[in-house]
Amino acid sequence: MKHYAFLRKLALSPRKIAGFLPCAVLLAAGVAWAAPVAVPIVLTGADRRPATSLNGEWASIVDPYFSGLFSFHHEEKANGWFLNRKAQSGDAFPTEYDFSKAPKLKVPGDWNTQRDSLFYYEGPIWYERDFSYQPKEKTRVFLHVGAANYHSWFWVNGTKVCEHEGGFTAFNCDVTAAVHSGANFVVAAVDNTRRQDNVPTLETDWWNYGGLTREVSLIEVPDHFIDQYDLHLSRGEGSVIEGWVHVVDAQPGAKVEVEIPELKAKATAEVSDGGRAAIHFDVKGLERWSPETPKLYKVEVRTGQDSISELMGFRIVETRGTEILLNGKPVFLRGICIHAEAPYRTGRAYSDKDAETLLGWAKELGANFVRLAHYPHDETMLRAADRMGLLVWSENPVYWAVQFDNPKVLAKAEQQLDEEINTYRNHAAIILWSMANETPNTEARTRFITTEATRARELDPTRLITAALLVRAEGHTKIVDDPLGKALDVIGTNEYIGWYEQKPETADATEWRVAYDKPMIMSELGGDAKAGLHGKDSERWTEEYQANIYRHQLGMLNRIPQLRGMSPWILMDFRSPNRPLFGIQDEFNRKGLISDQGQKKQAFFLLQKAYKEKTVGKAE
Ligand code: GCU
Predict the structure, then answer these.
(1) Substitution site in 337, 438, 493, 576 for ligand 1 pocket (most atoms within 8 Å of beta carbon)
(2) Predicted confidence band at 21 (pLDDT cuts at 50, 70, 90)?
(3) For labelling, which of 22, 124, 152, 155 has a CA lying 20 to 30 Å from the CA of 68?
């Protein structure tokens, strides 16, 4: 049968026989012998590479007990559903699944909004898709997954190709050895079960959309290929582009070229031992990227048979005391928070259209900045932010109380941080890497996030590190002295005066005491309102009440000397299981300035006026 053909393929050697005996025994017992499976890799600019899309309808089987992978003794099965087996007449055992008869789920897309029966579903679901492929000489092929929430396993033609944890970052599985010419199939198991030691953990204020939530494709690269590269404008020397290009399995002395045809600028460098080539070249006449002038350049990155045509802007961001400098000039971040909730259809956002609509509304609001909460958003959002000229806060989903004293959880947070930074590092729009949101002030937490911040700085010293902190109060004084502030370049603080605490008017009497001589961003403020619900501005849930919160906030914000930005919570209403108030919330967090159906609330126009007339915030 199939398994033994597999053994034959391995050309058994005495050492191997020794090695495989246990596996043969295990196989006979129907227990999986886990051949070491390659760890998925991160590809920078994967969405700029030619690819064979695997988007569309996939067969799907809901498997709440995960019996497609685990036996009745919770051992991983050797003959699990990843084999996509078809029952044969005369089989000595039943095959109790058949993808060819299974209902479909669209990819990309969360499963919750595709089928009513899956709206609240949390657990494993199997996906299967057939595809044809022709292997090529000197060519490697990767299964590119834009995101799979939360824990996912992938097999090609029954061979396990990778496993991944984390629902909001892209990963790439090498399937070169698993594909063959002609008909192939890929099977995925995706489990969005929330667990204490996950990142994020059990509690979130967003819908736990499960599935293959972003695009899936096959990407071909030559044997020696570019997996990651970093190109940025040097902070020291204003007209110098520097960075590096990393080549996998580089030939000794391999050459790398980086060219910006529009600027007639080109650099050639040699790959060193570790596979990296250092890039450093002068560019004349470069127009720096900014919200006012979101200039993007075509950038060719080449080595050997491999090349990537990037589209990117060049700008410098830094701090000076309590100022944030963009291209050397102080800037005030007129922002808004955004969840990756799709406008109108709801569900996890992923498309160019979702990005255009959400960021279009932010531009209409008069924003030059968006906080993409609380996890890395789809690359379509970042491409659109680069194009539309919106500065971005991008966040690692260390949200509320993850297990800060659990080293495994730190490793998961670091893995997701690496994937976020290494995938998104060339987006000029991103100026801030956020390490966390509203975490409890404990030593374990401060150690955990300080470690994360140090890693982020090592990975990318060209951007600013921040986090959204909780603040404490003494009477009408808000005090920002969370020890985590030491590890940050920019302090983010969340407050809900007028909603979770006190009255909207209380903001008029509220003073802020900030223990850090650093730029500060009010990373959340606001209150809920049901679009179209009207009344006195003292009546909760009305548009008038929400607008009243904003009216009093603006005055307070202007009294905070080092405030260099703000991102009210939130651009658009989004689904949350914590919000059951029927007739008003209906499982939506209604703090949006716009409803999920695009209705703009009074507060939208109030903030728009302040942003357009620049009556809130001081850059210096
Ligand atoms: C918190 C949190 C958000 C949440 C918001 C709210 O501050 O960061 O994720 O949605 O408050 O309560 O509406």
Answers:
(1) 438
(2) very low
(3) 22
pLDDT at position 387 over 50: yes
Ligand 1 pocket check for 589: Cβ under 6 Å: yes
Q: Determine the average pLDDT of the residues in 33-38.
A: 60
Question: Within the chain, how many helices (H) and strands (E) appear?
Answer: 8, 33
For the CA of 500, the nearest atom of ligand 1? 12
Query: What is the gyration radius of the CA atoms in the chain, in angstroms?
Result: 26
Q: Give the mean pLDDT of 499-521.
A: 98
C-alpha of residue 328 to centroid of ligand 1, in Å:
33
591 lines ligand 1 (CB under 6 A): yes
Measured at the alpha carbon of residue 98, what is the angle toward residues 128 and 61, in degrees to the nearest 5?
A: 55
Q: Is 204 in the pocket of ligand 1 (CB under 6 A)?
A: no
**What whole-number distance in Å separates Cα of residue 339 and Cα of residue 332?**
22
Cβ atoms < 10 Å from Cβ of 47: 20
pLDDT value at residue 35: 55
Mind listing the pLDDT tens digit for each residue in 87-99?
999 999 999 999 9
- Is residue 424 within 6 Å of ligand 1 at its C-beta? no
38 token code pair:
């390659």
Do residues 383 and 402 lie in contact, with contact meaning Cβ atoms separated by under 8 Å? no
pLDDT of 312 over the 50 cut: yes
Instruction: Please identify, by atom number, the ligand 1 atom nearest to the C-alpha of residue 591.
Output: 13
Which ranges of 389-495 would DSSP assign to H, the alpha helix? 407-424, 443-459
Could you give the C-alpha distances from 83 to 3, 22, 23, 185, in angstroms and in order? Answer: 10, 21, 17, 9
Hey, whose CA ends up nearest to atom 9 of ligand 1? 205
Residue to mutate (ligand 1; options 524, 585, 590; most atoms within 8 A of CB):
524
When the pLDDT of each residue in the chain is averaged and rounded to a whole number, the result is 94
User: pTM value?
Assistant: 0.94
When pLDDT is cut at 50, 70 and 90, the band that residue 310 belongs to is: very high
Q: 204, 205, 371, 434: which to mutate for ligand 1, most atoms within 8 A of CB?
A: 205
Closest residue CA from atom 4 of ligand 1: 205
Give yes or no for residue 528 CB within 6 A of ligand 1.
no
Residue 230, CB-side half-sphere exposure with 13 Å CA sphere: 16
Q: What is the mean pLDDT of residues 445-457?
A: 98
Judge if the beta carbon of residue 438 lies within 6 A of ligand 1.
yes
Helix or strand (DSSP H, E) at 491: strand 490-494
Q: Answer positive or negative: Cα dihedral of 526, 527, 533, 534.
A: negative
pLDDT digit string (tens) for 396-435?
999 999 999 999 999 999 999 999 999 999 999 999 999 9
Condensed to tens digits (0 to 9), the pLDDT of residues 217-236 reads 999 999 999 999 999 999 98
The length of the chain in residues reads 620
Q: 255-260 and 265-270: which strand pairing?
A: antiparallel
Q: How many CA atoms lie within 13 A of 477 on its CB side?
A: 7
Check residue 532 and report its DSSP letter.
T
